[in-house]
Amino acid sequence: MRIVKSIPQLRKLVAAQRTKGRSIGFVPTMGALHEGHLSLIRLAQRKSKYVVVSIFVNPAQFGPKEDLAKYPRDLKRDAALCRSAGADLVFAPRARDVYPDNYHTYVTVGQLSEGLCGASRPGHFKGVATVVAKLFNMVQPDVAVFGQKDAQQAAVIRQLARDLDFPVRIVVGPIVRERDGLAMSSRNAYLTPAERAQAPALHHALNLAKWLVRSGRRESGMVKREMMRMIAREAPLGEVDYVGIVNNRTLEPITKVTSDTLVALAVKFPSARLIDNVVIR
Ligand code: PAF
């Protein structure tokens, strides 16, 4: 497995694989890899012949009060994990190469970026869309794999790829959970033991939503209220940022849960903001 920092070198190595007729799979990450990322790398391997993983903590997607400075960075550890999961190349560009002096171009995806996480993290999806568009141009993958845990991000990327005519197939891999149901996330490492003990409340609230809908109670307002009550009870250290019940494709709020509904939530603990979701089909 190669580790590459320069964009021209990345292009050269990927082009050589293409000449051999190999399809290129791509898994963009910000490092701090966990089993969730590794499952995406394995998925990319099944969908393509040569797998590139990028590791880049993208400053453009962090708000001024967010955790950019303290975001965990350990390239050695991450590269070893990529190798163990079967990646062929790790691309870890420097921030000054991705955003050189006098950088001015940003990509905004509009409506899909505005609700849910977009409402509480203004500019976040603009940063994500920009870096992903740039990475797509650098790597030129045939297939790119994203995680369902960031459901809104996946929707934004699908729209971006379609609108800007990127010749890439977007594949979304399922959420990987800890044994107690907590969705894996690099930010789980920030949690104190007391917060970690309460964090499965997000998953429990989503299970409650599924159960309510299955028993015929489909009114979104009621489902939301029950979910919030459960979180208040099980995670008193957390503060609900949002519970969203939206159409899984358009991300528009819906008043009655139908098929293809995304139930998504974000809870702010003092040490980390966690997100999770479930699709009700
Ligand atoms: O999901 C992430 O880790 C990031 O948002 C991504 C897609 C790598 C863009 O920086």
Instruction: Write the CATH fold name of the largest domain.
Output: Rossmann fold
The neighbouring-strand order within the major sheet is 1-4-3-2-5-6
- Whole-number average pLDDT? 98
> What is the beta-strand fraction?
15-25%
Give me the secondary-structure category.
Answer: alpha/beta
* Number of H/I helices: 10
* DSSP E strands, number: 9
| Overall CATH class of the largest domain | Alpha Beta
Oligomer: single chain
CATH architecture of the largest domain: 3-Layer(aba) Sandwich
Termini separation comes to: 39 Å
Radius of gyration over alpha carbons?
19 Å
Provide a brief overview of the structure.
This protein has 281 residues and is α/β, with parallel strands linked by helices. 39% of the residues lie in helices and 19% in strands.
What features would you describe in this structure?
By secondary structure, the protein is α/β, with parallel strands linked by helices. It has two domains: 2-173, Rossmann fold; 186-280, Pantoate-beta-alanine ligase, C-terminal domain (Pantoate--beta-alanine Ligase, Chain: A,domain 2). Helices cover 39% and strands 19% of the residues. It contains ten helices and nine strands. The strands form two sheets. A six-stranded parallel beta sheet has the order 1-4-3-2-5-6, with helices on both faces. Strand 8 (261-268) and strand 9 (273-280) form a beta hairpin. The protein is globular, with a radius of gyration of 19 Å. The mean pLDDT is 98. The chain binds pantoate (PAF). The site of pantoate (PAF) has 10 residues, from strand 2 and helix 6.
